[in-house]
Amino acid sequence: MKLLRQILPEPQQLALGLDFAPSEGNPQRPVDRPAPKHETPRSVSPGTPTLFPGPTPGTTASSTPRRRIHVGSHILEYRLLRSKRRSIGFLIDDDGLRITAPRWVTIAEIEGAIQEKQRWIFAKLTERRERSARRLQAPMVWQDGAKLPYLGGDIVLQVIPALGTGIAFDAEAARLTVCLPPEAGEQQLKDRVQGWLQSEAKRIFAERLPVYAEKLGVTYRQFALSSAATQWGSCTSDGRIRLNWRLIHFAPPLIDYVIAHELSHLREMNHSPRFWATVQSVFPEFAAAKRALRDHSPEALPLF
Questions:
Q1: Measured over all CA atoms, what is the biggest interatomic distance in the chain, rounded to whole angstroms?
Q2: In the chain, what is the straight-line distance between the N-terminal and C-terminal CA atoms, in Å?
Q3: pTM of the complete model
Q4: Would you say which domain of life the source belongs to (predicted)?
Q5: What are the chain's domains?
Q6: Are strands 96-102 and 88-93 parallel, antiparallel or unpaired?
Q7: Among residues 147, 208, 243, 262, which one has the fewest Cβ atoms lying within 10 Å of its Cβ?
């Protein structure tokens, strides 16, 4: 996924994706490289430690035969598929590294390309395994005493059986008290908490948008909450801003970054160097914020 995807429907809209990695860093999409000629890689010797020897834990191994190659002091396993394509494609999935190459490209050339691309491969394999490990963690249990991420910290849910319904937040104690009928189930608790989080998101966004609009000298037409699965925010050329309510889980500087990012599109409806200079002019720490959002996997957020 590209850092910022351009959506074509009118009016023109730019969206800030949940995955902030560069386009060639998306583990879901292949990276194409021409098939350069390289020296023949070293053969694999017994006893060499294997790096990423098989599928990610909890997945099913592919039936495609696996090959091995020395990369530094490790052995890297990969699956090779032949096709009619004209370039070598790299794809990281739950089974590890898969390479698609033209039928005329030799193994030596393919493995030379692997050596050339090794930093990207290792980084994405590590990222994929970490994400898979997080998915194996126990999901949040919606009950009294559960913890919930809010503005970069954790708050504790306190559920009080009551005839009526109500919700109150104690910022000093970092406690969200929810009153529900005794017979209420988990879904009702989630619905009440989600409603509160969305109202908090709307309040905070409404406070921060004018701050950065004034700094940038722009005027937005309106803003609305989004629950998009792949975007933190979006902006159309006629000034309509959408911000993902799940940003409420993150620290205020990350929220400010997304807001500054979207409003900057009202001056530069693109992702050119001038656009990034515009973002930096009002949010100098944008690079660190972008990395922090990239490191916060959506899988780690509570499910509603």
A1: 76
A2: 24
A3: 0.64
A4: Bacteria
A5: 34-136 (no CATH), 147-300 (3.30.2010.10)
A6: antiparallel
A7: 147
Question: How do the pLDDT tens digits run along the chain, 304 residues long?
Answer: 333 333 233 346 666 665 333 333 343 344 555 554 444 444 444 444 445 545 544 444 455 778 999 888 778 999 999 988 889 999 988 788 999 999 999 999 999 999 999 999 988 888 777 766 656 566 788 999 999 999 999 999 999 998 777 999 999 999 999 999 989 999 999 999 999 999 999 999 999 999 999 999 999 999 999 998 778 999 999 999 999 999 999 999 999 999 999 999 999 999 999 999 999 999 999 999 998 888 776 667 888 8
Give 234's strand partners: 15, 242
- Amino acid identity at 159: V
- How many CB atoms within 10 Å of residue 188? 15
